Amino acid sequence: MAAKWKHSDKGKEEMQYAVGWSGSLNVEEGECVSSVLCIPLASQKRSSTGRPDWTCIVVGFTSGYVRFYTESGVLLLAQLLNEDPVLQLKCRTYEIPRHPGVTEQNEELSILYPAAIVTIDGFSLFQSLRACRNQVARAAASGNENVQPPPLAYKKWGLQDVDTIVDHASIGIMTLCPFDQMKTASNIGGYNAAIKNSPPAMSQYVTVGANPFAGFFFALEGSSQPLLSHVALAVASKLTSALFNAASGWLGWKSKHEEEPVQKQKPKVEPATPLAVRFGLPDSRRHGERICLSPCNTLAAVTDEFGRVILLDVTRGLAVRMWKGYRDAEVGWIQTVEDLQERETEKMDSSPFGNAQGPSRVAQFLVIYAPRRGILEVWSTQQGPRVGAFNVGKYCRLLYPGYKIMGLNNVTSQGWQPQTYQICLVDPVSGIVKTVHVPFHLALSDKKSERAKDMHLVKKLNALLKAKTSDSDLIEAEAKELILDIKYPATKKQALESILTSEHVPLSSLTSITQTLMDNLKKQELECVDEGLMQFCANKLKLLHLYELVSKLNSQSIQKETSPSDNDLAKLLRLEEKDFHRLETLLENYKKENTKTTTQLTDEKDDTLSVKMFLEYLEYEKDVITVKNMEDGEYVALGSFFFWKCLCGESSTEEMCHALESAGFSPQTLLSLLLNLWLSKEKDILDKPDSVSCLHTMLSLLSKMKVAIDESWDTQSVSPWWQQMRTACVQSENNGAALLSAHVGHSVTAQIIDSVTEKKFSKIVVGSDTESWEALSLDTEYWKLLLKQLEDCLILQTLLHSKVTKRTKRVSSLQTEPLGRLSVKKLLEAGKGGIADMVAKWVFKQGFSPIILNVAQYKNNTDSTEESVEVQNNLFLEEPESDTGLERILELLQVAYQQFPCSLEVDVVHAHCSWECVVQWNKDPEVTKFHLQGSVIVLGIALMMWNTFIVKRLSSATYLMDKDVGMSDTAMTAFLGCCSELLQTLLEADVTSDEMQAPVLDTEDAWVSVEGPVSIVELALEQKRIHYPLVEHQFVLCTILYAIMRLSLKSVKPLSLFDSKGKNAFFKDLTSIQLLPSGDMDPNMLSIRQQFLLKIVSAAVQTLCSSQKDKEVSEEELFPFEKGKNWPTLAADLAQYLQISEDLVRRHYVCELYSYGMDHLGEEAFLQVADKEVLASQLLVLAGQRLAFALLHGQIKEGMDFLTRLPPTLCTWLKAMDPQEIQNVEVPIATTAKLVSKVIEHLPENHGQYSLALNLIEAVEAIPACCAE
Question: In Å, what is the CA distance from 29 to each residue of 62, 231, 355, 711, 1213?
Fold first, then answer.
């Protein structure tokens, strides 16, 4: 299983474990998996952050094989080191020695067999696994590498004098102290034993099982030489069999003369070096089950079948503790390192040269999971108490690997942050993986640990704060008592933070508690006082006093001034009356359209903010208040608390600004809060015109604060203060509020500049008339530019929010997706075509035909005469559903055209509409159709559409005509029709392109600085000219495909109508020159083409006949581009391309019309036929079939009698006729008579069938008389 970030049911991102790979691993018959181990391998890259490069899965089998796999189940190498079943796999990874005297332990993998133990050197294993993995990657890529992975170095010990072994622990290399060395030598060699000067290094192993219950083995280093294995590398890939057969011996395993692969030969198994048990814990009735070594390699926990957990001291070989009543227990260890900052400060004379605190201490905790009781316990070792217990369920698994990442050493492990868990608990019922964290102070004894007492007080305080009680005085008194009892400053701070973040404690209590703690700290001696805590209390007190003051100012209601008139507002904003009324109109339109699309939830208590939130949002440091990084909503809430009452005119603006400045807020922070509030409350502001004058007052006050506007600022430089305000307006998506705030900013800027200029010039020019002067400055010019941009953005946003109020047709889900809101910044970054692109998206979302763009332009350019109204009405008929609110939309479009004469040039917008249509079609081919609107740029746009979206799908549709290509039949038919239309447009545009001039792509002055992607129109104009014959060739294929789908022609293979040259030329770049079919075509090919064209004509006539019988509107809805499409004419045009006689197709069309009894249409089509003589002879047969049916099948009474009166030649001819060949036999005799007359008219007298035709006309004319008799 592998960890992956996924969305949970609650919508949050969380880590989940998912199955990475599953499958069967057994290679030999009857073998089973007996042990599994995951070893994370370290990355060799210097930039690695501590995560493993990859994980090797080691699997032991009952056959004795140990196999190594990648995470995806690819076999890397297999080893048979012993022929007995593998009992247990364990791993040890590198740990930095904690003390200089501790022996450095090497990495190793140990494999336990029933009577042997094999240890593989970690470095050797790491290198082999990396080599094998690289080899597999190369084999999968090429299969021609020949790299032999290095052999594994291992030791194999035969464990003697033990009855049964179930589990083991490899303690590592140890060195005895001199006393233990002499004691051991005496026990083994007796009184005269020789003792070496230096104690020998030994590898220690501990086994558990029976007789002895725990056995201790010591292998002297150097007593057995490491064995080298022959690595059996296997590439678990489907490619391997082919690779091995193709390149014999490419990995050096098989020579040219060998027929049998090496894998089938059983590897040689080396004999084990005997190793006797030195001593053990003899207990004949006790059988050990599991052993778990502590991280410091000094202790081990052993479980037995009596339900005991025994703690072993592995260095001394003693059982030091026993826990009872833990049947089927699972054990693990947690090692916790002390945080030096939390160490208890002891009063001691510290040396100036040494560290008074010393190195970090380490504590070991034993974790025991008792599944019978469903409890997880944490014990302090060796003799410590139980420090934690959790109810976890009875079906969990405790996972304790006992190792970290393989591949580190004393250099690479420096500064390495481990990314593995020490221990975790898997709950299969809930599917949750839990980890256990134990704080270091729990290892300290209760009597000495003041921290434990402090933690207890903090818990008590938290319980008090959560208690449901209305007596705030009681809470305050208890909280004071508890916080003063706490000893450690860090814990005091933690307790105070808990109180300040509580929602139940009132402001007065918070102030009182903080003040009490502050006073208590002041009474203490200076050396004992923690300066950080003192400063923390002082800062929080200042914030609490500020909150109290702001709340008081908000609650004091002042008398509202009378609302300013329009004249007053115009003067305030320095606008002419005409400009002010225009601004009002624009905002009114914007407000109307904006309320349709957005609903704003307004909070009644806008000016209230809880103390908890207030303290969370602000930080007080060095007499300055800063606002923390937070979400937009929280930023607005803080700004609302300070300024909303002032903006509504319900609170004193001067007092509020003075209070905030005195508290330590910078003017820039206050401006940011004010603008965020203003821009977010757009709906309320547009409803309250007097808020503009309040904003003007507040902005003037903020601008006069110290350090707001730099003293060195002059009219020729840009002030960062005003630039901050302009940046906020540029980024805002609430264009109405942004435009108003920009007008206010411009007005205040001009006011300040005037006062500065007046001071300068009053000294120079005394008594002159300066009122009519307008001081120019760089900031004023920037404001004017921004006002123009914001106005443009507002007009465009108003248009994009407008929509028809009634939609009857089916709407695509793509059309219901809302358009994003605009800002000046977005438009500046959208590139030159950004504005046209927005309008195109709006046209698509509303389901308009792009013709609406022409209507608005037409209205702009002409007076509304009767003629223009008639034209508009005709255009509206194409959009029957868009009858509601269209006039309003056209007005908004006209305003947008006036505002953006260059960006919204009609041809440019049409090009963007075409592109948007095909982009949306590509997302949902089932609902959307794409089309091209004629314009100058159409050639390039059509070519881009073809190359980007269409050619791949069309290619798939052609080659998989009878198979699923991801579209329904209806969508496919529409798609092929659109393709045909697109190519026809390309051909027409290429012919007329020389006559038309390319448009000049200008930009409005306010938007010259736009940056971003190249516009679609610029790309379109850069496209190469098409190769006309190639497009024509592709058009023929498209039309054929469309005919097949539209007319439901069966068993037609479109590509069979073309030779190899023709097939090769399809779907190539339309601007390239390809080799096209030329000269005479194969007669068989021509025959197939002729049959196909006649099929089209027959199917078209059949469709025409059935549609006349029952009028179907749905066809036109599905294929709107088919209006006026004449399939027989199209077939005749195709005939010209396909080298088939056009007249033959037309004659077949006439015959089919008469066959279906549509003689009136047949007479019209007759006129287009060139060879009327051949057609007349064909129609003569058809007339004969009609008469034969009338006489022989009972349409006329006494038909057989009448037949006998006819000339013998005619009689025989009529009897030979088959009336079933014609589709409609129920045709009046008079109509048939008219047909025969037409035949005689076009048959020459010397024609072989002329006499037969004369006899036939006499017979037909005689029938009515016969019937009358």
Answer: 11, 22, 64, 90, 85
